[in-house]
Amino acid sequence: MNDADTTGKARRWVARWSDVHIKVFVAGVSAFLLLDLPGWWYWLFLCALALAYVRPPWDRARGPVTVAAPVTGTWLALNSPGSKVPAHGTRGYGQTYAIDVLVPSDVTAADGEHPKPRFGWGLPDPPENFAAFGSPIHAVAAGVVVAADDRQRDHRARNTWSGFPYMLVEGLARQIGGWRFVFGNHVIIDHGDGVHSAYAHLKHGSLRVRPGDRVETGQILGEVGNSGNTSEPHLHFQLMDRPRPGEAAGIPFRWSTITVHHDLVAPRYGLPKTGRGEPGLPANAQVFDARPAEL
């Protein structure tokens, strides 16, 4: 067996069991609080959670795969691998190099003022109030659709003081339910050579493809929605080495069809954090323009 095979198995082992570790932690802490277990039980469950973030010392991720961007127009990057890895704080569900993108409602020069996000009271906004909702999602490369589901509802945003804690509790429940409840409506495409792209949180009823369909680079797959574990409408994108996120390890990527504006940020999200990104990979809070890929 060569080094690449050993490395791939190590990444998949960590990715597969990280989901289990998170579920054990959630169930264990709940039992600790409800059953008044001894204190050492808490630390045991905390160790179970820590295992979700383990990276084997011999693990070497494969090099970045260059693909087209899954969106067009002006967007903002959040939870980006251009700022930290793992980008979403966990390697579970193949999310090591995942990125979130949304349409910024306000853009300014990087040396301007950057007010913090403002949360209100009352009922959270419906998804239709956000600019990203309904934006088309494009295939980043040619391939075959291996999974597609758009049956989950688009829920309201979590942009109020009452909605935020609800999102935290809901997120734990979705983790226990598995990756389909976290991703919401989604499409997964097999591009060959062990590369699969995943598009999550899509709009209910918006998919234009089904499993088995052959797609070309730039083809519209569906629309941005607010399904699954989301705070507001956005696209969650990632590359991974297996078609099932629960068994996959993440693959780094670069977008060949974007231009990052290093002098622009969206004030609501502040300045880029912990890294300035790379060509084809914006950092957190960086604004970028994505041009259409050639069909």
From TrEMBL:
Domain M23ase beta-sheet core, first and last residues per copy: 179-241
Pfam families linked to this entry: Peptidase_M23
Matches recorded under Gene3D superfamilies: Glucose Permease (Domain IIA)
InterPro entries to which the protein is assigned, alphabetical: Cell_wall_metabolism_enzyme, Dup_hybrid_motif, M23ase_b-sheet_dom
Protein name: M23 family metallopeptidase
Source species: Actinocorallia aurantiaca
Lineage, highest ranks first: Bacteria, Bacillati, Actinomycetota, Actinomycetes, Streptosporangiales
